[in-house]
């Protein structure tokens, strides 16, 4: 039965169906355009597989409920858009502090505030990184096609479990609402990181939920589900047992742990695609739905003899500095295209030490960036380097 | 219940508590332990979730699965715990500010869903952790650091709010009425559905000091003198009940709740799925 099934699926639906493959068995959410479809599919599908769905009273409650469910031992997710994501930020920080595996889907729409509810945007790039107060590590993934949504939501769950962190799964209104066809990957194709159950612990072991040097895993203690372990979690700075400690030394150690557990695994976490970069003299940097226009722009420019390639990050946070620096070292011009006023391109310019000429294509008016806008930027760049 | 019996349920290495001398929180904590002990619940099968505030520190001292969460959100976290693990007995320990102000929305919706939780509200009429500000349960006219001219707001009646919202077991006692408190918490724990127990408690440090009832024992005496049992209250006139604390069991009914109803949905959905 290895015959592949050809499907047509909506982005939001792919997000929900992929989450089920990843082992998500609890969803709490609140209706919001353009993410509502994810909740609708989850409400239909979760009870079929023994999972649980609840429509909470607001996004604050939704975020809290998924953290509670995850600590109790069940893989959990919520889905929202900008306004709801703003409301979830305090709980997001709690998930960071308590190192609780959770997935927060943010289907971006025109913003700020109520913005343009039915139109796409990529305005929450910085919010995904710095939305909650204080320093913390974060992983944010952003696919660019419906098939990628289906595949990378599984990755999001795996990262959440492996690195014990909330993971932001970014989408946009277009990606969420459009339908695309693709060969549905078999669930067997995916490696799934499972939660350790409490009965797998040895009787004599006193489980330390925040132990740094774990025998079970290199440097991150896996979370076990509630039960025999009877541990305590708190949003306060805590020691390895989870109990609050006010000492600066322990606070500083915990903060370092938050940062390092991501930093030391960049090879695993940084996912990106490059297209036609082998002989490229120029690079277009684009992600999410904009990467689709960028791909077309690259083809158009290539047809006109311009040697240009595309860098498409899937991992938005942590920022892909290492692979990007390598590219910036060999090209003579950069175009960054994004549906915001320069959030990701600001990060690109921060690592552009050689000051390679750079053009940005920015818009946040609810319209997609056209391939021709990107080609024009490329042409301007060529003009600049000829001057 | 003697000291060593209570200690079996405590994380004794984390003592002493952060609570002030004379505080009522320890009484409510002990009553909760005694209720659990009477029911012979296994410690592994209990999850206790708290928010932020003095009373919410209780989770750190209890030897169960414990979560000290965000201000106002304890009930929402507990909802996730209960739905993920219906086998656990889930208790929420929360304060008057935590449950009734910032967490008011989660409170009424958990009541409406008849979520199978036991919510113990430590009501000391004040925000203690932040230094004595008035709360939605502060009696009108009381003094607090943010009501230096007297509180002009009308407090919520927790019992009425829970009743209107749909909770299926509702009781109130004070820290003076320890045995009643044990009984009500015990009944709340055994009850299937949303149980709300308001434990009227004393904060001599702030509420007492600002309102000229200067000590823990003094406040307990006040509870003794001013509490009226529900059965008696029913015979009294409205004017006679002015300023009184009505204690007793207000609601005890059987009604389907989210946990059981969702299990039915699961069975239906799984059946349709396998029929395909």
Walk me through what this model shows.
The complex is a heterodimer of chains A (387) and B (276). In chain A, helix 3 runs parallel beside helix 5. Chain A folds into two domains: 5-189, 3-Layer(aba) Sandwich (Rossmann fold); 271-386, Rossmann fold. Chain A is globular, with a radius of gyration of 21 Å. In chain A, 38% of the residues lie in helices and 21% in strands. By secondary structure, chain A is α/β, with parallel strands linked by helices. Chain A has 14 helices and 16 strands. In chain A, strand 12 (282-285), helix 11 (290-303) and strand 13 form a beta-alpha-beta unit. The mean pLDDT of chain A is 94. The relative contact order of chain A is 0.12. Chain B is of the alpha/beta class and 276 residues long. Helix content of chain B is 39%, strand content 18%. Chain B contains eleven helices and ten strands. Chain B has helices at residues 3-7, 25-39, 74-84, 96-102, 104-112, 158-165, 178-190, 204-210, 216-226, 230-233, 258-275; strands spanning 46-50, 65-68, 89-95, 118-123, 126-127, 133-134, 169-174, 195-200, 227-229, 245-252. Chain B has an eight-stranded mixed sheet, with helices on both faces. Chain B has a two-stranded antiparallel sheet with strand order 5-6. In chain B, strand 7, helix 7 (178-190) and strand 8 form a beta-alpha-beta unit. In chain B, helix 2 (25-39) packs across helix 7 and helix 5 (104-112) crosses helix 6 (158-165). The longest helix of chain B has 18 residues, at 258-275. Chain B is globular, with a radius of gyration of 19 Å. Chain B starts with a helix and ends with a helix. Classes of the chains: A alpha/beta (387), B alpha/beta (276). Strand 10 (232-234) of chain A pairs parallel with strand 2 (65-68) of chain B.
């Amino acid at each position: 039965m290895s015959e592949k099934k050809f499907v047509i699926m909506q982005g939001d639906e792919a997000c929900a169906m992929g989450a089920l493959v990843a082992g998500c068995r609890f969803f709490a959410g609140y209706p919001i355009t353009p993410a509502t479809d994810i909740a609708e599919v989850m409400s239909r599908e979760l009870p079929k597989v023994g999972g649980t769905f609840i429509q909470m009273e607001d996004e604050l409650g939704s975020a809290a409920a998924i953290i509670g469910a995850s600590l109790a031992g069940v893989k959990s997710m919520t889905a929202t858009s900008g306004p709801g994501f703003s409301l979830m930020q305090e709980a997001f920080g709690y998930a960071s502090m308590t190192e609780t595996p959770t997935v927060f889907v943010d289907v971006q729409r025109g913003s700020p505030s109520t913005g343009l509810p039915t139109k796409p945007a990529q305005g929450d790039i910085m919010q995904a990184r710095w939305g909650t107060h204080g320093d913390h590590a974060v992983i944010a993934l952003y696919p660019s096609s419906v098939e990628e949504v289906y595949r990378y939501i599984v990755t999001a769950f795996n990262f959440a479990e492996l690195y014990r962190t909330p993971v932001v799964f970014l989408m946009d209104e277009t990606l969420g609402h459009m339908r695309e066809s693709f060969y549905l990957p078999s669930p067997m194709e995916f490696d799934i990181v499972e939660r350790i159950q409490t009965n797998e612990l040895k009787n004599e072991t006193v489980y330390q939920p925040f132990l740094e040097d774990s025998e079970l895993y290199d440097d991150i203690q896996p979370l076990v589900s509630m039960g025999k372990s009877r541990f305590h979690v708190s949003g306060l700075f805590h020691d390895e047992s989870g109990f609050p400690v006010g000492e600066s030394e322990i606070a500083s150690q915990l903060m370092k742990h938050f940062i390092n557990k991501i930093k030391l695994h960049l090879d695993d976490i940084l996912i990106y695609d490059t297209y036609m970069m082998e002989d490229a003299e120029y690079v277009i940097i684009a992600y999410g739905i904009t990467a689709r226009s960028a791909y077309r722009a690259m083809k158009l420019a290539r047809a006109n003899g311009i040697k240009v390639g595309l860098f498409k990050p899937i991992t938005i946070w942590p920022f892909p500095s290492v692979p990007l620096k390598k590219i910036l070292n060999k090209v003579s011009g950069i175009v960054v295209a994004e549906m915001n006023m320069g959030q990701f391109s600001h990060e690109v310019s921060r690592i552009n030490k050689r000051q390679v000429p750079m053009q940005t294509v920015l818009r946040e008016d609810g319209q997609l960036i056209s391939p021709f806008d990107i080609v024009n930027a490329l042409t301007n760049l060529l003009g600049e380097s000829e001057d | 219940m003697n000291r060593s019996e209570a200690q079996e349920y405590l994380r004794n290495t984390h003592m002493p508590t952060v609570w002030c001398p004379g505080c009522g929180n320890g009484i409510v904590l002990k009553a909760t332990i005694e209720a659990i002990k009477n029911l012979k619940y296994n410690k592994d099968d209990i999850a206790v979730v708290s928010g932020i505030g003095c009373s919410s520190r209780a989770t750190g001292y209890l030897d169960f699965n414990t979560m000290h969460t965000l201000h106002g959100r304890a009930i929402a976290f507990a909802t996730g715990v209960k739905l993920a693990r219906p086998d656990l007995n889930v208790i929420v320990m929360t304060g008057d500010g935590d449950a009734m102000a910032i967490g008011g929305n989660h409170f009424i919706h958990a009541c409406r869903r008849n979520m199978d939780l036991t919510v113990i509200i430590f009501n000391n009429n004040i925000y203690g952790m932040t230094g004595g500000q008035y709360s939605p349960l502060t009696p009108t006219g009381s003094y607090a650091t943010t009501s230096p001219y007297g509180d002009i707001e009308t407090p919520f009646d927790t019992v009425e709010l829970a009743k209107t919202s749909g909770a299926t077991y509702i009781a109130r006692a004070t820290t003076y009425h320890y045995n009643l408190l044990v009984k009500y918490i015990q009944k709340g724990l055994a009850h299937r559905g949303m149980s709300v127990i308001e434990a009227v408690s004393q904060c001599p440090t702030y509420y007492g000091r600002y309102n000229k009832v200067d000590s823990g024992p003094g406040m307990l005496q006040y509870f003794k003198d001013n509490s009226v049992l529900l059965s008696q209250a029913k015979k009294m006139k409205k004017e006679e009940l002015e300023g009184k604390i009505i204690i007793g069991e207000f609601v005890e009914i059987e009604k389907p709740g989210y946990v059981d109803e969702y299990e039915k949905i699961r069975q239906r959905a799984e059946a349709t799925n396998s029929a395909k």
